[in-house]
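Dig into this one:

. . .
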Amino acid sequence: MNAFEFVIVIIALSFGYKLVAAWVRNREQYRVTDESANAALVQRLEQLEERVRVLERIVTDERFDLKQQFKDLAS
């Protein structure tokens, strides 16, 4: 390995180090963003689950079935 190749390798290693350092730094920032986004998604999921429970209660109610049959007869 001559001096020119050695300099090229040193430059490539320094750029590689900077690239990896930037990637790690950005990855940590996205992790914080992902955690807040996950918390918002979990809250939204809980709201949707509650809405589904309410809809299940409405649909399985006997009066709902009777009203639906009346609507079908009227059509």
Summary: Residues 46-75 form one domain. The chain has a mean pLDDT of 85. The helical segments are 3-60, 62-74.
